[in-house]
Amino acid sequence: METVGVLGGSFNPVHIGHMMLASYLTQWGYVDKVWLTLSPRNPLKEPGELLPDMKRLAMLSIAAKGAPGIEICDIELSMPRPSYTINTLDVLRERYPNTKFKLIIGSDNWLTFEKWREPHRILDEYGVMVYLRPGYPVDKRHIDGLEVVEAPMAFVSSTFIRQAIAKGRNMSYFLPAGVYKYIIDNKLYRTK
To answer: Among 6, 46, 181, 189, which has the minimal tally of Cβ within 10 Å of its Cβ?
Structure first.
């Protein structure tokens, strides 16, 4: 049975850190594939700098093109909102019964995992892979369903990239091939 890691996020924009993590997890055998799962814009929150779903999805598609073991998943865009991770995993399992799904989150999210909807069911039925992020250590005691991964990290964030583009900085080395061109061609993240 194939194991797919589900790495969710707003990907506003997707950057090399996301791609490095996904590539590492597949190449080092933690999972067979990683599905970059786009989270929809929350209609109850101010959009702020969050681009529309289709623009973020386009950037994900550009980033994943030709990336071995990395695929795009837009399932949450068609699900009822608010979207909860447990619901996403349940729908994926129902649609792909011959695939084992594991959730991938950063150690910053692990600190608040107990507040998520049905966190123990996520651990028991799917499992959680936590990748370490600077400043967010994880207690190393054994927890059923938890796997801590020390993957190589790029200290870059989508916020940093948006702010740099707004200031006219060249971010071509911080983004997957083609994504920076898409951002520039579509005049995204520019200050008005």
So the answer is: 46
Fold for domain 2-153?
A: Rossmann fold (3.40.50)
Separation between Cα atoms, residue 24 and residue 12, nearest integer Å: 21
- Distance, CA of 35 to CA of 22 (rounded, Å): 8
Residue 44, Cβ neighbours under 10 Å: how many?
7
DSSP string, 99-128: EEEEEEEEHHHHTTGGGSSSHHHHHHHT-E
The region that residue 66 occupies, defined by phi over 0 for left and psi between -120 and 50 for alpha, beta otherwise, is left
Query: What is the residue extent of each domain of the chain?
Result: 2-153
Q: Please write the tens of the pLDDT for every residue from 166-186.
A: 999 999 999 998 999 999 999
pTM of the predicted protein model: 0.93
